[in-house]
Design brief:
- By secondary structure, the protein is mainly beta.
- It has eleven helices and 36 strands.
- It has an eight-stranded mixed beta sheet, with helices on both faces. Strands 24, 25, 26, 27 and 28 form a five-stranded antiparallel beta sheet that branches. Strands 1-2-3-4 form a four-stranded antiparallel beta sheet, with no helix packed on it.
- The two termini are about 35 Å apart.
Amino acid sequence: MRLTFAAALLVATAAPTSAQSLHQYGALALSPAGDRIATVENSGTRGVVTIRAVADGRVLRTIDPCATCSYSRLTFAPDGDLVFLVRDGTAGTVRLTYADARTTRTVATIAGIAQTPRVSPDGKRIALLVTLGAAKESGATQAGVRMIGEIGEKSDEQRLAVFDIAAAKPAAPVTPLSPAGRYIYEYDWTPDGRGFVATTALGNGDNNWWVATLDAIDARTGAVRAIAKPATQLNQPRVSPDGRTVAYVGGLMSDFGSIGGDVFTVPLAGGSPRNITAGAKSTVTTIDWTKGGLRTVTLAGDQVQLGTLTPGQPVVPGFAKPASVSAGDGRAVFSADGRIAAAVVQDYEHAPALYAGPIGALRQVTHDNDAAPALVTARSITWKNEGYDVQGWLLAPRTPPAGKAPMITLVHGGPSSASMPGYLSETSLNAALLKAGYYVFLPNPRGSYGQGEAFTAANKRDFGGGDLRDILAGIDAVERLAPIDDTRLGLGGCSYGGFMAMWANTQTDRFKGIVAGAGLSNWVSYYGTNGIDQWMLPFFGKSMYDDMKAYEDVSAIYQAKRAKTPTFIYVGERDIEVPPTQSIEWWHALKDRNVPVSLVIYPDAGHCVTGAEQSADVRQRAIAWYDRYVKTAR
C-alpha cells in the first residue's frame, strides 16, 4: 500500500536537458573502514559499479563484467573486498560476484532471483537470499502472477543460502540452507558466524510480511529457533557486536521499502522485546549496530536525521536536513566503528548527490548533478488540528502564476509512510503540474511517519476520518500562506492515497477533480480479493468476517450516492496489493450515478503502474483531467 501518487508517476529522474543525463547513484555501500563508497552509477540507460574515495568523492575504480547485465545489492566484505549481484535478464539468472583488488569472479549462479548478499564476519562465506524458479519479482508491489488454474497452493519461496568463497563452484546447483516453506525477508549474521537472526514467516511471502517473526537460523544445519513473536511488525534485525542482543525496527505497519517505527531490543536467546525509543516524537527508518553502538536514521517532522542511539535515551542527532536519504541497505550506511556514514541525499530543489563523512559532519562529495535546475520552490508547512502537530510540503512554480492559482493535493500511500523531499524531474507528475500552473500540496496527516509511533497509529479504525480532516485543515493552512484559489482544488493519490481520493468524494465537495490510482473503494470485497490481507488486522482489530461493519463504515462504495466529483481512475492488471476489481467497482458506481468518470486498466502492470511508458500515459491523462475539471472551475 506504500506508493505515493507522485512517486508512482515518476519516470527515472530527469536532468538539466534530458532524463538520461542526470547522474544516478544506486545500491550505495560503505567499506568497513569508512574510506570507500561503492555505488551503481549511470548517466544513461545502464549503470556500472563505481568505487569512490570517501574523502573527496573521486573515482578509484569501475567494475563492469557484463555489458548486457544490471548490477545491484553491493556490500563490502570485512577485508574491504566487494560483493555484488549481476542480473542477466536474457538468461534469467543472477550471478553472485566477488571483486578483490585485482580480479572479479563468480561465486554462484542462481536460476531465479536473489537479493541481500552478506559476507560472514570471518570473510570466508557469503549468505544470500534466493528464490529459485521465481514466478514473479519479490515484494507485493510487483506485478503478480495471473490468477488462473488452482490458486493459493504454491508460492515463491525466498530462502537463505550460504556459499564458501574459496571453494566456489559457480555452475553448481544452489542448495538453500533454510527449510522449505519458510520465507526469509531480512537477516543478519551473528558475530561468531555460527548463525543468523532473521525475520521469517511460513507460507505466502507477499501476504505474511506484516506478521513475520524474529528467528535464529543455524548456519550449519539451517535449523530454525524462535526468538520472539513481537506484537508489532518488525524489520531490519541487527545483532549487537557481543552477540547477546538483537535490535529491530518495530511499528504498526511498514510496507515493502517503507520501514518506520520504534527501536526494540530482545535477547538473542529469546524473550520479550523492549521498546527503547518509546514516546519519541520521530520515526526510526533505519538502524545499524556498529562497534561504536547503535546508529539510526530518523524522520522528525520535515528533518531527516542520522544519529546515535543509547537504549532508554533520545536519539542524539548528528547530520540533519530537510531532505531524503537513501542507501543500498537502509536509508544510510555506516562504517564498522559507526564513526563514518554515507547516503544519497536529495530534496525538491537539489538533484541526488553522495554525502559522506563523520556522522555529525556529512558533506557533499560528488557534484555530477550540481547543474541540474530547480524546477520548484518547496516550503515545509506545519499546522495544528485536533491536538496533533501535522506537517506537509507545498510546491510552487519557480515563477508563480499571476493572481490566485489552482492547487492539487496528492496523498501518499501506506497508510504508514510519508511524503519526503525528492528532486523533481521534468518527467514527474509534480513537475508537469507545476508547469501547467498548479501548486502541489503533499500532506503528512495522522497515520504518517515523522511525529512518533502514536501519531502513526492514530488512524487505527479511523481510515478517512481524522487523516482527511488533517488534510482539509492543511489546505486551509496553505491558503493562509499562498495565493491558492479555493474554488479550484484537485485531489489525487495512489494505493492508500487512492482510497483517500475515492473516499473524499463521498465526504466533501471541496475538490473539483480527482485522480485515484489503485484505490480501495470497498474494504469488504477488498479483504476477500487482495493478496496481502494481513496488513489490515492491526488497523481494524478483527478480520472482515468478524467485524464486517467496521469495513463497511469506511468503504466509499456504501456511500456512493454522495459522490459528485469527476474522477479519473487507473490501476494495473496484475496488482495484488489492490486488485483492479476495486477500481471497477468504483467506476461502475460513479457511472451509475452519472458522475463523469474514466477508468484505465494497464496490461501486465503491478501496483500503481510504475513502468515508464504506462506511467507517462497516466501522467498525461491526469493532467488533462485536472485541466478539464479543476483549472476551469469557478
